[in-house]
């Protein structure tokens, strides 16, 4: 959705969906912008959104009849500072067929006056003071609310605290949501897709770029409408997590941040090594439906430990995504420490896969078609693993110690 350098840098970068009113600048998807970060900030922001009923692509080749703000899922990120006044205008496009509305979780206003539904062609305007810092949801509150949210009518508003957090090298804005085919699916909580920023496996296709030892800050929002998120980055630990994005609600050293529907967090983290680190909801039934992405880490980090002994090869067979224990060949495989305890997975399929330890003991990262990846096992035991994007694919590695002579 967006990545930007810290205010200490010369510029900011926008990636994905637009950001509205970031330091009074509107950024456009996929365009690199430089801006003066030393300018005096206004205390009153005009935020204008338009409700559009549109057809939106949510997975490769799969389009959904959507309700949107400004034509995208999610809507633009709105960013202000604590104490600022937001002057908000919503227009319901004249060619729409339904009424729509706006509910800002960051506002304290009379619901019946300002969050009311407006008909196609109408406009509503109201103001509120952003009193509390945090990562908040905004969404359409027109009944049935579950349908308007599930069809894409939501977004994030970030209210930065008066006393800023420590500067970050990179910032990302991620919105998790569920996408459904029918109202019955919505009521039964059986989504077709669970996604980050509106698209199935969006950041598998376009990984988020970070550097070794950079302070990375993720503004994360789970809009639901019904499922919790267990936000987790494989291969690191969150240095700090601020519940609801409020600096006073800080936790240290979390492996996973549990975020309810309409809840948000700010998560600070770093990466020690060059490579790739997936991020998921650790509710893997949902991760397998598209809530999966990658951080691509570059720089001069410490290299992984050197291989010990020789190698053993496991092939990921053609058509593996539709298979179970026969997706890997051989399976199980027995290796011996000091002989062939570096296992190399070679992907013979046309889709990308991983080999990921069931208990988080190892992870190859995403292996593209025709490519390979290796893991060295130094402790005896039985290691069950699976493919992160296709968890039906299951394998086992048995690691043995070398027999004494």
Indicate the CATH topology of the largest domain: Immunoglobulin-like
Unreliable stretches:
1-42
Query: What share of residues is helical?
Result: under 10%
Structural class: mainly beta
Q: What gross morphology would you assign?
A: globular
CATH class of the largest domain: Mainly Beta
Count of separate structural domains: 2
Rounded mean pLDDT score? 87
Supply the CATH architecture of the largest domain.
Sandwich
Individual helix count: 5
Number of strands: 31
Please indicate the percent range of residues in DSSP E strands (runs of 2 or more). 35-45%
Distance between the termini: 59 Å
Radius of gyration: 23 Å
CATH superfamily of the largest domain: Cupredoxins -  blue copper proteins
Most strands sheet:
7 strands, mixed
Topology, element by element:
Layout: E1 3-5, E2 11-13, E3 19-20, E4 32-34, E5 44-59, E6 62-69, E7 77-81, E8 85-92, E9 103-104, H1 111-114, E10 123-129, E11 134-139, H2 145-150, E12 154-160, E13 170-179, H3 183-188, E14 193-196, H4 202-205, E15 208-211, E16 216-224, E17 229-233, E18 238-243, E19 250-254, E20 257-259, E21 263-269, E22 275-281, H5 284-287, E23 292-298, E24 311-316, E25 328-329, E26 333-336, E27 342-347, E28 356-357, E29 372-376, E30 381-386, E31 394-400
Parallel strand pairs: 3-7, 5-8, 7-12, 13-16, 15-23, 24-27, 26-31
Antiparallel strand pairs: 1-13, 2-4, 5-6, 8-10, 9-11, 11-12, 13-14, 16-21, 17-20, 17-22, 18-19, 18-21, 22-23, 24-25, 27-29, 28-30, 30-31
